[in-house]
Amino acid sequence: MIIVMKPHAAENSIKAIADYIQNSGLHAHLSRGTEVTIIGVVGDKSRLSTENLISFKDVDRIVPVTEPYKLANKKFHPEPSRVRVGNTVIGPDTLTVMAGPCAVEGEEQLLGVARAVKAAGATILRGGAYKPRTSPYSFQGLEEEGLKYMQLAGKETGLATVCEVVSHESLEAAVKYVDMIQIGARNMQNFFLLKEAGRSGVPVLLKRGLSATIEEWLNAAEYIISEGNPNVVLCERGIRTFETATRNTLDISAVPVLKERTHLPVIVDPSHASGSYKYVIPLAKAAVACGADGLMVEVHNDPAHALSDGPQSLTFEKFDSMMGQLSPFAKLESRSFPQGEKTE
Ligand code: PEP
Ligand code: MN
């Protein structure tokens, strides 16, 4: 449930209720707006009496929250969240672009891609060091060596960095080198990994599972937040459908649905959604027009020879062109690129 306080409720009225909730063995989650404070209650509600709560001073009303996710719920936190990653912030005023190779292949390769995406206006460098490949015979990633190159490329360019983790060991390693960890589609319901990501306190990019409903996805986010880490960003990356013309089907409607249900930032990955560089730019435009807070795009120095996901990777030229083409869409949505507008 949430307790909506009267406008400009006194601080001691808010504290009295929060104390009552905590003393009853539940958790009170405060969300302060400019006029109204909302108190979200997490825990076993049978321990609380609604009549008692409504009789507290300055309480306006009590609203039940029927969804199983509470801390990720917009009812608990009506203001959109902002998540800081390194020196950049993902949130409602900006269009954050994360770009880089599917897999880190070497120091020179990564540095080259990092410089190119930075010059085009990206603020976060992506690169996989632990690759969850469909075939065990495909390139599996450089592991810790790849993380070191990510750190180096981040330092060299000033870009923040994000890298996928797939296990306890990779998570422990990644938090030493990168600014944000990614939980990929295949691990979205690896609840032990989600809890560890929550305990790490590091910003988490949570991709949607291949066949996950939006409610399952928000519950996965709840796992992370309930461990004390509110820094979660959701990434729609396409879902499995009967359609085979694209690698996955981009569920563009997930963006407005999530905007209605959660305060967490939402970004879109048109690369994994489509599987083809040809569709990345139109889908990126659709995502921005639909209200996404950012994009994740695969970019490679030589897509034809990439060790992973070459067919969906943009060249430097195409990425630069995409950033220019996105400018009017960002402007229409009252968003700016975090480092100023990129013009072609
Ligand atoms: C990736 O971002 O490299 C990746 C493997 O994505 P997903 O988990 O969405 O398939
Ligand atoms: Mn990839």
Bound molecules: phosphoenolpyruvate, manganese (II) ion
Characterize the largest beta sheet: strand count, sense, and whether it forms a barrel. Answer: 8 strands, parallel, barrel
Helix/strand order: EHEEHEEEEHEHEHEHEHEHEHHEH
Beta-strand content estimate: 15-25%
Q: Quick one: overall form?
A: elongated
Fraction of helical residues: 25-40%
Treating each run of at least 4 consecutive H or I residues as one helix, how many helices?
Answer: 11
Radius of gyration: 21 Å
CATH topology of the largest domain: TIM Barrel
Structural class determined from secondary elements: alpha/beta
Describe this structure in words.
This protein has 344 residues and is α/β, with parallel strands linked by helices. The protein has 2 domains: 62 residues, 2-Layer Sandwich (Alpha-Beta Plaits), CATH 3.30.70; 250 residues, Aldolase class I (TIM Barrel, Alpha-Beta Barrel). It has 11 helices and 14 strands. The strands form 3 sheets. An 8-stranded parallel beta barrel has the order 7-8-9-10-11-12-13-14, surrounded by 7 helices. β5 and β6 form a beta hairpin. α4 packs parallel to α5 and α6 packs across α7. The longest helix is centred in the C-terminal third of the chain and has 17 residues. The termini are far apart. The C terminus is likely disordered. The site of phosphoenolpyruvate has 10 residues, from loops.
